[in-house]
Amino acid sequence: MLFCGRVKTVAAMDTTATDTRPKFSRLTEGRTRHSWRAAVPAVLVIVAFVALIAYLASRLSSYSQRADVAERDTNQYRDQVTAITKQVGDLQKDVTLARSPGRTTVILEVAQPAKAQGGKKKAAATSTGGAWAAVIWGELPSGKTWMRVNAYGLAPSLEGGKAYHVWMEPQSGDPVDIGVVEADQNGSGFAMKSDLPAIDQGKSVMLTTDAQDAKRPGDVIARADLPKLKPTAIAEAPQAQGEQTPAAQNPKAKSGSETQQMHQPGK
Question: What b-and-e string marks burial along 182-195, b requiring 16 or more CB atoms within 10 Å of the CB?
Answer without folding.
Answer: ebeeeeebebbbbe
